[in-house]
Design goal:
Length: 182
């Protein structure tokens, strides 16, 4: 997959193998002033001990969106939300596409609403275009992810566009938007 369509529901796949999985659904919309990202997660053992925005919530259960507002795969934003509504927001520089050169944590420039239920949670993220430096509605790239921390310490990874390795920071797998009727 190299393109993603707004308003279409996708299942995130296992990240290292690409195997199908139906435990996390993802969808996004482009409003007049902001992106809306939606995740619906099945998870029986939610693990996320973090109490503050910009804590290392990626070490627990979380959903994520990486977005390059200009289509430049070496500069992008990392957006995360825990099942308890804690947010993580960073500007990323990844010049090699493998190792991170810079992770600049900044005050989150988006809102997130989390709804927990027995057996899972849902997340809605509203990300204003104005918070994305240089945003180009024709060139931006995204990928969406889920981190699933297990009681035994393992962390399972799922992606809209799998990176086929144990990390998400592989911008060559970012997707462009497929335009057309929705």
């Amino acid at each position: 997959m190299d393109k993603v369509r707004a308003k279409q529901i996708y299942n995130l796949s296992e990240n290292t193998t690409g195997a199908a999985n139906d435990e996390c659904k993802f969808c996004f919309e482009r409003g007049e002033e902001a992106f809306l990202f939606f995740f619906d997660v099945r998870d029986e053992d939610i693990i996320s001990p973090y109490e503050h925005d910009n804590d290392d919530i990626y070490d627990g259960d979380a959903v994520e969106v990486f977005i390059s507002p200009t289509g430049d795969r070496t500069h992008y934003y990392e957006i995360e939300v825990s099942p308890f509504g804690k947010r993580f927001w960073a500007k990323i520089v990844n010049s090699t596409g493998v190792e991170l050169d810079l992770v600049d944590r900044v005050e989150p420039a988006y809102t997130a609403e989390v709804s927990r239920r027995e057996g899972g949670y849902s997340v809605q993220i509203r990300l204003p275009y104005a918070s994305l430096e240089g945003f180009d509605g024709e060139k931006y790239l995204i990928n969406a992810y889920r981190l699933d921390k297990k009681k035994d310490g393992r962390q399972l990874l799922y992606a809209l566009s799998p990176t086929f390795c144990p990390k998400f920071h592989r911008p060559k797998y970012f997707l462009s938007e497929e335009k057309g009727e929705n």
